[in-house]
Task: structure prediction
Amino acid sequence: MPIFIIEHLEPKLWEWCFLEYKSISRIVGKKNLWFTNIKDRVEVRKLEKYGKVFSESVADLNLKKACLLDIDAKQQLKTEDNKKFKFFILGGILGDFPRKKRTKKELINKIKFNIEKRNLGKRQFSTDNAVYVTKQILDGKKLKKLKFKNKIEIRINDIESIILPFSYPLVNNKPRISEELVSYLKKKKDF
Result:
């Protein structure tokens, strides 16, 4: 199994990020997950339960056989890429909709080693779902065979709901979203 690297690009480890990172650890396993660019000691300790943690940016690790997942990449990820690459790098970003292309601004422009890029189509995913789709493809599924739901609604109570504008892979005909994240959203007071 390759190593999945999440380059943390938020100013702190927001609860939403943390829940997505926990979800990623469940998808790929602790031994296959690295978190980079984690500066705060408390955040390092919190994440060590879910993967290997580096204070350095992935840009400073000088990796060989690395692939960066970027929606703007010219080539689409294919199952054969699991033989070509050892590391799959994703930006840990709480997504804006419409997106602001932060992966390019905050990560791609900083990487000094040779890196190839791949996309997962033109859909915008949460970080954990980007990892899920990546793993599905590397495990042999074709992107065009995966089913998605764009935009999901989370009911907060009888009169309120939250619309999440991203694309969600369907697992057993249901959008894949962490139950912990759904609980968090239902308890959150403001948006």
Q: What stands out?
A: The mean pLDDT is 90. The domain at 3-142 is CATH 3.40.1280.30 (Alpha/beta knot). Helices lie at 15-28, 41-47, 81-84, 102-106, 127-138, 179-187.
